[in-house]
């Protein structure tokens, strides 16, 4: 048996086929995010995310932690996005004021 590996400079990923999720809009700058991931790797991620824990539900097999993320604040304070990219992201992900979705819990 022979194991073949791609060159380390090449990054590959695969996705399981699925239907479009209507509650998860397409990120308008997703291609830029993928191409710039190596620049953001050390300072952009869960360790820098600003959130507020709103609920914790401890169940026998898992714990569900519900958080609220101020997307507008995260996007506007990011040093990685241009003003045009920030505007695109805010239009796609921040609902107009007074049009907030219901809390699922």
UniProtKB/TrEMBL annotation:
GO terms for molecular function: galactosyltransferase activity. One of its GO terms (biological process) is carbohydrate metabolic process. GO terms for cellular component: Golgi apparatus. It comes from the Eukaryota. PANTHER family: BETA-1,4-GALACTOSYLTRANSFERASE, BETA-1,4-N-ACETYLGALACTOSAMINYLTRANSFERASE. This is Beta-1,4-galactosyltransferase. It comes from Plakobranchus ocellatus.
């Amino acid at each position: 048996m022979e194991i073949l590996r791609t060159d380390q400079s090449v990054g590959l990923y695969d996705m399981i086929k699925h239907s479009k999720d209507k509650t998860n809009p397409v990120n308008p700058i997703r291609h830029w995010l993928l191409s710039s991931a190596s620049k953001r790797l050390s300072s952009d991620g869960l360790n820098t995310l600003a959130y507020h824990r709103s609920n914790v539900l401890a169940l026998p097999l898992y714990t569900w932690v519900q958080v609220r993320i101020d997307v507008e604040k995260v996007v506007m304070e990011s040093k990685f996005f241009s003003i045009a990219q920030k505007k695109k992201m805010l239009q796609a992900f921040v609902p107009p004021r007074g049009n907030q979705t219901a809390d699922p819990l």
